[in-house]
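Worked example 3 (structure in, sequence out).
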């Protein structure tokens, strides 16, 4: 999954995700939880969520 797709899944910008991953900023606790849930999704489940949005 690309960074842009992960950002779309989380409902944030690609820039925000890049800043989290590069350590420039820390996500809020609620977003961090969503990030970990998304990281544990299978490809099909993630695509279903992206397609639904």
């Amino acid at each position: 999954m690309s960074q842009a797709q992960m950002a779309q899944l989380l409902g944030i910008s690609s820039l925000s995700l890049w800043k989290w991953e590069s350590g420039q900023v820390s996500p809020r606790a609620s977003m961090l939880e969503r990030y970990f849930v998304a990281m544990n999704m299978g490809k099909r489940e993630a695509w279903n969520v992206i397609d639904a949005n």
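Notes: The chain has a mean pLDDT of 88. The first helix runs from residue 3 to 10.
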